[in-house]
Specification:
With about 160 residues, the chain is of the alpha/beta class. The chain has helices at about 10-25, 70-80, 105-115; strands at about 5-10, 30-40, 45-50, 60, 65, 85-95, 125-130, 135-150, 150-160, 160-164. It binds zinc ion. Zinc ion binds next to β6.
Length: about 160
């Protein structure tokens, strides 16, 4: 099956705030959520906001656990402040001194989002920042899900990003 050529649009300020959070936790891992919307026509993704790990998030070298209560409140706040256009798109996280590729655990996370009906994101996004402080390599993925009769087919696609 052919994958769709979808672009991801993200502002410099959103990228900068992700890099700043990545720097502040280095060399521990950090991450959070992506907020925005999918364009109805092109299916392109527009990231309008990111949510950080939250004040009670706990960080380790190879993992982190976010402050879920904080993140839930932030999702609601951003949704209201954008007149209900920006919703949950997926996750972002760092691989300090690590590879710019998704781990098996990262793939599991994407599958869980895609197959969790309440999340309402059949084709979720994952943004990864890998490398060193102030020298992050940023990569973007989408787990594209297509329905085929009674089953779903998923394809992991590397997205090209455009900044604005
Ligand atoms: Zn990872």
């Amino acid at each position: 099956m052919r994958t769709r050529n979808i672009k991801i649009w993200i502002s410099d300020s959103v990228l900068d705030s992700m890099r700043a959070l990545a720097d502040s936790s280095f060399p521990q891992e950090t991450g959070g959520l992506l907020m925005g919307y999918f364009d109805d026509q092109s299916k392109d993704v527009v990231v309008t906001d990111i949510i950080g790990p939250g004040p009670k998030g706990s960080h380790k070298r190879m993992s982190f656990v976010p402050d879920y209560e904080f993140q839930e409140k932030e999702i609601a706040r951003i949704y209201e402040e954008t007149n209900r256009t920006s919703t949950y798109l997926g996750d972002w996280h760092t691989h300090p001194k690590g590879h710019a590729s998704l781990s098996g655990q990262d793939l599991n996370t994407l599958c869980n989002i895609a197959f969790y009906p309440k999340a309402r994101v059949p084709s979720p996004i994952m943004v990864l920042l890998a490398g060193n402080k102030a020298q992050w390599q940023v990569r973007f993925w989408q787990l594209q899900t297509t329905r085929r009769f009674f089953w779903k087919k998923t394809t992991l696609v590397n997205l090209n990003s455009h900044t604005f």
